[in-house]
Design brief:
Number of helices: 13
Oligomer: single chain
GO biological process, one term: transmembrane transport
Largest sheet: 6 strands, mixed
Helix content: 40-55%
Number of domains: 2
Distance between the termini: 77 Å
Strand content: 15-25%
Main location: other
Family: Belongs to the bacterial solute-binding protein 7 family.
Organism: Bradyrhizobium erythrophlei
InterPro entries: DctP_fam, TRAP_DctP, TRAP_DctP_sf
CATH superfamily of the largest domain: Bacterial extracellular solute-binding protein, family 7
CATH architecture of the largest domain: 3-Layer(aba) Sandwich
């Protein structure tokens, strides 16, 4: 049957439109996904991601070939975040505080002394606060999966003296991650913060570029910082977690069933990881003591009082805005 010129043109345009409108990854096709992580393969978050990726491969009969690369193999946090946004890598685990540079609200969950216990953490992160953070990330092309991994409450380690009172932080050279929240926090506490990436931290402690650092016990153990630090002060000055994030365009091009499989596997692994990390952050104190780390527990109230007096909370309330701050205080109680 012959087509006239108008019919041919309409048919061709229709076919092209169908191609452009189709998902980038068709249902049933081979999918290759690369996921980056910052911590050693022994860290609970790395183990959880390895388990989730293995489950996804198995459940899809290896049609979804998703591979996890721990220990900053794909670059520093900042480098991986840039790659995820550009599409050079598909996914990564990322601290909300570290993502503050591209989506300011992402760091609000790391506000100092915001959550008194894990019950409040999960109410917030699985509730309205987590939803607000994910919405903010979506605006800059980052898709965050619903459940956040637990990194734990952060504590201070030092090589020269324990932190028995807030005065012990004065002038101390403290390593902090490259993020405005951390820098402003330890500046307000009187320390001298220096931003150093996690993959350079051990050598910075070993060569005394800095005297101390702050991290959850799981990271102190997996990073072997007890080898180059003497004291650990349980300050629990902030809680931090790791979002599993993806390039927005890439993840939204997946078929609905494939995205559902990936989401379910990540959620199952995350729930298990939360329980394991909470247990480890208690049990690790004994094993780290056996490795020579000396522990103490300073009064946390003095740190909060100094932060309030220094205007730390008032400044961050203004930066985040009253609406976001109200969502945070729904779970934390009044901070400023």
């Amino acid at each position: 049957m012959m087509l006239n010129r108008r019919q041919f043109g309409n048919t061709a345009l229709g076919s092209m439109a169908a191609i452009w409108a189709a998902p980038a990854i068709a249902q049933g096709g081979k999918i290759n996904l690369k996921v980056g992580g910052q911590f050693a393969d022994s860290h609970p978050s790395s183990k959880a991601m390895e388990a989730a990726c293995a489950e996804i491969r198995q459940q899809s009969n290896d049609r979804i070939d998703i591979q996890f690369f721990p220990n900053a193999q794909l670059g520093s946090d900042a480098a991986m975040l840039t790659q995820v946004r550009s599409g050079a890598i598909d996914m990564m685990t990322a601290s909300g505080i570290s993502m503050q540079v591209v989506s300011p609200i992402a760091g609000i969950s790391g506000m100092a002394f915001a959550f008194s216990d894990y019950a409040h953490v999960w109410q917030a992160m699985d509730g309205d606060l987590g939803a607000a953070i994910r919405a903010g990330l979506d605006k800059v092309g980052i898709y965050a999966f619903p459940r956040i991994l637990d990194s734990g409450y952060r504590n201070i380690t030092t090589s020269n003296r324990p932190i028995a009172s807030v005065d012990d932080l004065k002038g101390m050279k403290m390593r902090v991650p490259p993020s405005p929240v951390w820098v402003s926090l330890f500046t307000a506490l009187g320390a001298s913060p220096t931003s150093i990436t996690i993959n350079e931290l051990y050598s910075a402690l070993q060569t005394r570029i800095v005297d101390g650092q702050e991290n959850p016990l799981t990271i102190i153990e997996s990073g072997k910082y007890y080898e180059v630090q003497k004291y650990c002060s349980i300050t629990e000055h902030m809680w931090d977690g790791l979002w599993i994030i993806a390039n927005g365009k890439r993840i939204k091009s997946l078929a609905a069933d494939d995205l559902a499989l990936i989401t379910k596997s990540f959620e199952t692994a995350t729930v298990k990881q939360r329980t394991e990390t909470e247990r480890l952050n208690v049990d690790l104190e004994s094993s780290l003591k056996a490795k020579g780390l000396v522990f103490n527990r300073p009064d946390k109230a003095q740190f909060r009082q100094l932060l309030t007096k220094a205007g730390f909370y008032a400044d961050w309330k203004q930066k985040y805005g009253p609406e976001a701050w109200a969502v945070l205080e729904k779970y934390s109680g009044s901070l400023a």
